[in-house]
């Protein structure tokens, strides 16, 4: 290489390095980029976004919640039934392929691009074989959640009591249930065994060991509901609102901004590629707890648009968009009520509660339809491609509802000194460890009899085969 060329290369390298140092020297902007965007990551949100206090104290139970738990002097918890989303996971194979394509585009640019200089140092470390697997951070999510629930419900999650674990067949759910069980065991037995200078092990507690039961009928009902698969999952027209928003003015503006930041032509990008860049920002915050250089591509206004894009998909595929989305979850809701009924029957017959805690591990796609079935987070107007600005303050925000490790917990109590036999058994519901008001009132506690009466149509009329099975020779609807 000629001396002059070497000099020019050295100067170029120094310039690029100075640019990178300048970006890093911004400190506040670089460090907070992911944090500034984190409220808008939708279903790719880390659990701490819903509970910010956990960033400071991971085992904190947060500020006191008025009316929770019910007063110990008169009410005793009988059973806890939890439906839990798996912990933090890696991207799916499809997302990784899109990211690889985008990363290749960035690498093929001619010349330097100061606006996205930090990306020149970012290495594509995701591999297709990661395909949605539980990350180490996800195991930590589950262990911490187990320890907090044990602290919240010491009478239910107690040593020498038997718990039921149910999971979808997906490895991220099975591994989540294993990590939760390990965390629970350590919470219940760790202190005693540490005093004896022994490491807490599951093998010394056969009552908790047991096999984790795989039940896709409950945890992945959406796969087994033929009408949902035909009318929504495999119906190209079902997501037309999502498709229209991808090509609408709001997304066009985001695409143009990101293309400009990457020194690419706008026609080299599309909504899917821009969204995967945004998701990469969220994945790296959740998995590695870092602010990825991909985050620097987006402003808060961009993030709001991309959050809406994600919520449109959840709304039309898992929420209120189509009735079959929520009705398919009736089999899970019926299972929850049946298990609570069993505890009531055992209590009335003065029998020990067979399983004080039933812990089910599934997906965002498990929880979102169930919450819609129960009437939670429903807006007055449906989410559509053309009413983005009307929904700036919407209730349906998937990141606040079903982040990683999201959990919906039903707590059944037996209460003395009640005026009516119907009030003897009461229920509270928590979402992500915070009390939920029942959709029809501002109350956070209700009699179990009243709860069943409110959902009697679901309990009595929603038979999974009637809801989901297709008649013979059925054809797909438009």
TrEMBL record:
It catalyses: (2R)-2,3-bisphosphoglycerate + H2O = (2R)-2-phosphoglycerate + phosphate; 1D-myo-inositol 1,2,4,5,6-pentakisphosphate + H2O = 1D-myo-inositol 1,2,5,6-tetrakisphosphate + phosphate; 1D-myo-inositol 1,2,6-trisphosphate + H2O = 1D-myo-inositol 1,2-bisphosphate + phosphate; 1D-myo-inositol 2,3-bisphosphate + H2O = 1D-myo-inositol 2-phosphate + phosphate. InterPro entries: His_Pase_clade-2, His_PPase_superfam, Histidine_acid_Pase_euk. It holds the Pfam family His_Phos_2. Residues 1-29 form the signal peptide. It comes from the Eukaryota. Coiled coil: none annotated. This is Multiple inositol polyphosphate phosphatase 1. It comes from Gekko japonicus. The lineage of its organism: Eukaryota, Metazoa, Chordata, Craniata, Vertebrata.
